């Protein structure tokens, strides 16, 4: 199992670059909330910083690995992910709008990963009912301690996929 940790500022509007630390204690990548322009950031302030949601994960040299952004169309919300290493596109959509905290489905046409969203415990990514990763944010007054664990059997082994989706969907949300 691979384990990654990072400290996310409490303010969801933060655009600070956050270092992702692997189990060896080394920086493996970075994550950052990104606005494409100042107008979007200003407008987002009026929407409680939940309308324009985009997180980019880069390698230690600043090369993009994965991005996840929120898309709102006709009152429906979904997220799009882009893996810059494999070139695959992902659709992340809510499954079960009628329930209080719906699950999410993540698909690229090949795999269908389910994300069970938990507010105060581990949010678990599953493939064929088997856990492949888990993400958890623990509140610590000035920041959140975030932990990602990736199982050895996961077809996706790079943290960028799970972190970008976790930040956009679980940390900020709809």
Q: How far is it from the N-terminal to the C-terminal residue, by CA?
A: 30 Å
Order of helices and strands: EEEHEEEEEEEEEH
Q: What is the oligomer described by this structure? A: single chain
Helical fraction equals 10-25%
Structural class: mainly beta
Beta-strand percent range: over 45%
Low-confidence runs:
none
Neighbour order of strands in the largest sheet: 1-2-3-4-5-6-7-8-9-10-11-12
How can the largest sheet be summarized?
A: 12 strands, antiparallel, barrel
Given the structure, what is the number of helices?
A: 2
If you compute it from the alpha carbons, what radius of gyration comes out, rounded to the nearest whole angstrom?
15 Å
Overall description:
The chain contains two helices and twelve strands. With 174 residues, it is mainly beta. A twelve-stranded antiparallel β-barrel has the order 1-2-3-4-5-6-7-8-9-10-11-12. Strand 10 and strand 11 form a beta hairpin. The protein is globular.
Spell out the key features of this protein.
174 residues, mainly beta, twelve-stranded antiparallel beta barrel, 12 strands, 13% helix, 48% strand, globular
């Amino acid at each position: 199992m691979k384990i990654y940790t990072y400290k996310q500022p409490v303010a969801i509007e933060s655009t600070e670059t956050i270092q992702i630390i692997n189990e060896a204690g080394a920086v493996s990548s970075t994550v950052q909330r990104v606005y494409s322009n100042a107008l979007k950031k200003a407008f987002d302030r009026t929407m409680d910083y939940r309308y324009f949601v985009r997180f980019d994960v880069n390698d230690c040299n600043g090369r993009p690995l994965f991005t996840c952004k929120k898309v709102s169309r006709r009152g429906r919300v979904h997220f799009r992910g882009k893996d810059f290493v494999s070139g695959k596109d992902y659709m992340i959509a809510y499954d079960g709008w009628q329930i209080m905290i719906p699950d999410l489905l993540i698909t690229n046409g090949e795999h269908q990963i389910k994300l069970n969203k938990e507010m105060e415990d581990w949010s678990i990514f599953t493939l064929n009912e088997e856990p492949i990763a888990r993400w958890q944010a623990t509140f610590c007054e000035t920041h959140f301690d975030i932990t990602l664990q990736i199982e050895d059997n996961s077809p996706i082994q790079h943290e960028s996929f799970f972190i970008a989706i976790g930040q956009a969907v679980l940390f900020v949300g709809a």
